[in-house]
Design goal:
Order of helices and strands: EEHEEEHEEEEHEEHHEEEHEEEEHH
Number of domains: 2
CATH architecture of the largest domain: Roll
Distance between the termini: 19 Å
Largest sheet: 18 strands, mixed
Number of helices: 8
CATH superfamily of the largest domain: Diaminopimelate Epimerase, Chain A, domain 1
Strand content: 35-45%
Shape: globular
Length: 279
């Protein structure tokens, strides 16, 4: 018997929108190597691995190339799967133990609300030359937090037209680069895109963890704590953002595309490694 695997489109109310994530529900420990190889096989921006614990679920996130410390859309997908497949009652919150501490999710009608840590940026007074050349657009501001560079460009038009130099971005000593601008539409407060070739993601369709920085960034500039952001990737996605004193609430929708099971051959793979490297 293998493990259940579910493909979910997160931050979308319809199939084939938002950001796709894999969710693998583990019934026993798996090695880092095994999880990384399955994430590579899934070939999605992130694959989440869930395992039941006394106080909730252990949750880890892998891109096709590395494990990451924080991921919003795969957390949203994980909570969606737990409720949809009956692992949790619909009125019960989902609690996840992660590399970024405990994360909590609740259902709010057709939306899922996630409680995440705030990831504020500080101004980068001397931004790297490679960053400026890679973006090649009118830049209003450059900041940096523990994960990413944050670049505000002059307009949504510039942001949507952006074709960054991924070879230069890959040289930067960060997880990724968040590019943002004020929204030209009254429907949204801000727009953004996210590039992370360093971790194997040229452009992420919708990035929940980036909103942990964009929320307080735009809240300060717009003078409001409840915002609606749009990630202007090819697939696109909407994120509701509420900035609180010590954390941030991110809300989005999700839809299941398909579900299946890891084969017995894949289930038994890398047994030698799993004797020493377990989740």
């Amino acid at each position: 018997m293998g493990f259940k695997v579910v493909h979910v489109d997160a931050f979308s109310e319809r199939p084939f929108g938002g950001n796709p994530a894999g969710v693998c529900i583990l019934t026993e420990p798996r090695s880092y190597i095994w999880m990384q190889r399955l994430a590579e096989e899934m070939n999605l921006s992130e694959t989440a691995f869930l395992r039941k614990e006394d106080d909730g679920y252990s949750l880890r996130w892998f891109t096709p190339t590395v494990e990451v410390e924080l991921c919003g859309h795969a957390t949203l997908a994980s909570a969606h799967v737990l409720w949809e497949l009956g692992y949790l009652p619909a009125n019960e919150p989902a609690h996840f133990s992660t590399l970024s501490g405990w994360l909590h999710c609740r259902r709010k009608d057709s939306w899922i609300e996630m409680e995440f840590p705030i990831e504020r940026e500080s101004e980068c007074k001397s931004p790297p030359k490679d960053l400026i050349e890679a973006i090649d657009a009118p830049i209003s501001y450059v900041g940096q937090n523990r994960f990413d560079y944050v670049v505000e460009v002059d307009s949504e038009t510039s942001l949507r037209a952006l074709i960054p130099n991924h070879s230069l971005l890959k040289k930067l000593p960060v997880r990724g680069v968040i590019v943002t601008a004020p929204s030209s539409s009254p429907e949204f407060d801000f727009v953004a895109r996210f590039f992370a070739p360093t971790i194997g993601i040229s452009e992420d369709p919708v990035t929940g963890s980036a909103q942990c920085c964009l929320g307080p960034y735009w809240a300060e500039r717009l003078g409001k704590t409840e915002l609606l952001g749009y990630q202007a990737s090819r697939r696109g996605g909407i994120v509701r953002v509420t900035v609180q004193k010590d954390n941030i609430l991110l809300a989005g929708q999700a839809v299941t595309i398909y579900q299946g099971e890891v084969s017995e051959q894949a289930f038994l793979a890398d047994k030698r490694a799993e004797r020493t490297l377990t989740m």
